Amino acid sequence: MSLRLIKLFRHHVPALVAIVALLIVQATSELALPSFMSEIVDVGIQQGGIASAAPDAMRADTLAQLERFMPTGDAAVVEAAYAPADEAGVRAYQGSAADAREGSALEASLARAEAQALAAATGQDAGKLTDTMTEQMAVQFVRAEYEAQGRDLADVQYAYLGSTAATMFALCLVGLACAVAVGAIASRTAATIARDLRRDTFRKVMSFSPAEVNRFSQASLITRCTNDIQQLQMTATLFMRMVLYAPIMGVVAVMRVVQTSTGLEWTIGVAVISVCAVVGVLVGFTMPRFKRMQRLIDRVNLVAREMLDGLMPIRAFGRQAHELERFDDVSRELMETQLFTNRSMSFMMPLMMLVMNCVTVLIVWFGAHGVSDGVMQVGDMMAFMSYTMQIVMAFMILTMVAVMLPRAEVAAERIDEVATCESSIREPVRPELPAADTPRGELSFSHVSFRYPDADDEVVSDVSFTTRAGQMTGIIGSTGSGKSTLVQLIPRLYDVTAGSVALDGVDVRAWPLGELRRRIGYIPQQGRLFSGTIESNVRFAGDSVSEADARRAADIAQATGFIEGREGGWDSEVSQGGSNVSGGQRQRLAIARALAKRPEVAVFDDSFSALDYKTDAALREAIARELTDTAVVVVAQRVATIMHAHEIIVLDDGRVVGRGTHEELLRSCPEYLEIAESQLSAAELGLVEEGGER
C-alpha cells in the first residue's frame, strides 16, 4: 500500500494491533486443522486410533520380550515407565502419553524394539526398515498387544477419533470467534476512517472560496466527498481483514510445511511464481483503466448535474434528446471502461483455480510415489496439500487486493488534493478589531483592483468610494462591468489584488473571518434557500437571531404577507433550493435572512431583479426607514432601484466612470444617461417624488 493509504490508519494503531493479534490466533487455529486431519487419516484410520508406540498397558512377558531388543539403559527406562504387574500380569503405563506422541526417547526405544520383535517373528530384515516402516510395525505390535489383553480395538479407535474431533471443533470455534471479532473491529475502524475523512474533507470544502470551488468543480467535489471516500473505506476494510491476514497465513503455513519435511516444498515455489505471473499480466492490462475510471465518474456527475440544474431551459428549447445523447455518451464511455476492467479481472479466478488444481495434481503425483516408497504417509500428503493451498491463497488474496489498490490510490490522491489545497481566503495571522469608539458601519474602498486567478486582465480596476451607516450606495453598469465582483470583495468571497477594502477603519483582510461575515449581510443574485421551514431559513444565522428579529426582517423584505398566507405560516416547509416558492418569494426570503442578523453592512447583489415595481418600491422605502444604523450597498440593473441612493457608482469595464446622485449623473455621466434613457421615459427622467414613487 502507498503512504497515502497507510496514513489513514495513523489514529487507529490500537485497532490494528488488536486485529493482528486476532489474525495470528485465527491463522494458528485454522492451520492446525490440517495436521489434525492428517492424524485422523494416519492414526485414527490407518493405525486404528493407536497414536503411540508406548501402549497404555503391557503384559509383563511382553515387556520382558521387548527388553531383549533394547540396550541396558533403555530397558531400565522402559522398566521404570510401567508399574509392577497386577494379578493378571498387566503393567500400566505411568509416563506421559503426550510426551510419547511428541517422539520422546521412551517411545523411540519402544518403537525400535517392537519393530525388531515383529520383524524377528515374521522373518524380516530389521536393518532395512525405514522410520515410517518402523512406526507402522510398532503400531501393529501395540494392536496385537491390545488384542491379547482382550481390549476392544473399536473403542480405542472411537476414543481417539472423538477426542481429535472435539479438539478440531474447539479450534474451529476459536477461529470463528477471531474472524467475527476481526470483522467487527475492521468494519468499525473503516467506518470511523470514512466518517473522519468526510468530515475533514467537507470542512475543508466549506472553507474554500469560489476560486477553489471553480478549480475543482462542484461535481468533482461531490464525488470526492462521497464515492472516493467510499472506495477508501472499502480498501481499509479489505486491508484489515484480508491484506493483513494473507501474510500471517502464509508465514504460519510455511512454518507448518517446514515441519512436515515431505520433500515437496518445490511445488510451492512453482505455485507462487505462476500466481505472480497471472496477476502481473492482468494488472498490466487493467491499471491504466482503473486510473481513468474516477475521472469518468466525475464527468458523469458533471453532465448529470448540469442537466438537472438546467432542466427548464432544456425543455423550453426542446433539447431533451440532445442532452440525453450527451449523457449517454459519457455514461457509455464509463461503462466500456468498467466492462474492460471487469472482463479482464474475470480471468483471474479461473486462472487461479487452474494453478491450484495443477499444483494439487503435482502434489498427489509425487506424494503418491513417496507413500509407495514408505517415506510419507497419506495424511502427511493431505496436510501438505492443505498448507500449499493456504500459501497460494495468501498470495492470491494479496494480488487480488493489489488490483484494487490503483483505484483506491487514485481516490486517496484526489482527496489529498482537496485536503492540501490552500484556500485563497485565509484567517489573518494577527487579527484586528476596530476600536470601541470607531463609527459603526463605515465601508471604504481605496483604489481597489481585482483579477481572477489565472486571468490576464483586471475585472475591477482602481475603484474608490466610502459609505456609512444610514446611507445607500448604488452600483450600476452594463452586463460584465464587474458590479457583482466588486461587492463580493466586501465579505471576502475574493480578496483584492490591489488596494484595500476597510470596514470600520480596519482592512477586511485583518478581520477575523467569522466576525467579518457576521457583521455583513450579503444577498447574492440567486437567493438559494435550504430544505426546512420558512422560519429556519430566515433564522439561518443561528441562535443570535431572535424571533422578533426574524419578524422584523420579514416585514422589511415585504415577505410577511405571503408567509402568513401559506398553510402552516412560518412553519411551512421549504424544499431544497426553495423550488416550491416563486422567484420573487425566494428573493424576499433571502433578503429577510440577511437582514435578520442586523448587519452593519447590507449588500444587495442585484437582489431586486425578480420583484415587481410595486414590491421593489415598498422594499426600498422600508430599507430607508428601518436600516438607519446600517450601510447599504445595492447592485442593480434598474435605475429605479438605486435612483434615490445617496451616491451612485457607475462602472464600465471594471472602472468607475461616474459618481454622484441620480440628478448629477444624468448631467455628467453619458454611460448612466444611456442606461436611464433605455429604462425611463423623458418625463420620468426629471421626476423624483418623495418616498420613492415615480
What does this structure look like?
By secondary structure, this protein is α/β, with parallel strands linked by helices. It folds into 4 domains: 3-33 and 161-420, Up-down Bundle (ABC transporter transmembrane region fold), CATH 1.20.1560.10; 35-160, no CATH class; 443-519 and 599-692, Rossmann fold; 529-595, no CATH class. The chain is built from 27 helices and 14 strands. The strands form 4 sheets. The protein has a 6-stranded mixed beta sheet. Strands 4-3-6-7 form a 4-stranded antiparallel beta sheet. The chain has a two-stranded antiparallel ribbon with strand order 1-2. A hairpin with a 2-residue loop joins strand 6 (498-503) and strand 7. Helix 10 (218-243) runs antiparallel to helix 16. The relative contact order is 0.08. Mean pLDDT is 84; it is low at 96-103 and 687-694.
The first-level CATH class name of the largest domain:
Mainly Alpha
The CATH superfamily of the largest domain is identified as ABC transporter type 1, transmembrane domain
Strand order of the largest sheet: 8-11-12-5-13-14
Number of strands: 14
Number of helices: 27
How much is the average pLDDT? 84
- Helix percent reads 55-70%
Distance between the termini: 72 Å
Low-confidence stretches: 96-103, 687-694
Architecture of the largest domain, CATH level 2?
Up-down Bundle
> How many structural domains are formed by the residues?
4
User: Which fold name corresponds to the CATH topology of the largest domain?
Assistant: ABC transporter transmembrane region fold
Report Rg: 43 Å
* Oligomeric composition of the shown chains: single chain
Beta strand %: 5-15%
Q: What's the overall geometry?
A: elongated
Biggest sheet architecture = 6 strands, mixed
Helix/strand-derived category reads: alpha/beta
